[in-house]
Specification:
about 110 residues; mainly alpha; Arc Repressor Mutant, subunit A; two-stranded antiparallel ribbon; 2 strands; about 65% helix
């Protein structure tokens, strides 16, 4: 694969809970571990750990707000993730087209025999 893929980034967004958290943060603009735990079927402590993972890969940024941290999606990093996904998808599309051409060539040869 020629695209530089950030494995840590994709590992972070590979988790469905973290993807849902990103959706909520994008919709609400900002959130805390407490506010997110009220909307998801996981504990506040689990949400805090998930936010830590998202923060480490740069998808969210936390700022102190009293006893909690308020998290927002880092739109530049999210755009980078989307660009990576699009590039990987294009590479796989190209591979599938090559496989199809090979399969069609094999089929033509079999039909000629």
């Amino acid at each position: 694969m020629t695209t530089a893929v950030d494995d840590d980034l994709w590992s972070a967004v590979g988790d469905p809970t973290r993807r849902r958290m990103l959706d909520l943060l994008l919709a609400d603009g900002v959130g805390t571990a407490t506010s997110l735990s009220e909307q998801l079927p996981v504990t506040r402590q689990a949400i805090a750990k998930h936010l830590g993972v998202l923060d480490r890969v740069g998808l969210v940024r936390g700022t102190p707000a009293g006893r909690e941290r308020r998290f927002q999606v880092d739109e530049a990093q999210l755009a980078r993730a989307v660009a990576q996904l699009a590039a990987v998808g294009a590479e796989w599309d190209a591979r599938m087209r090559r496989i199809k051409r090979i399969a069609e060539a094999v089929q033509r040869k079999q039909n000629e025999q």
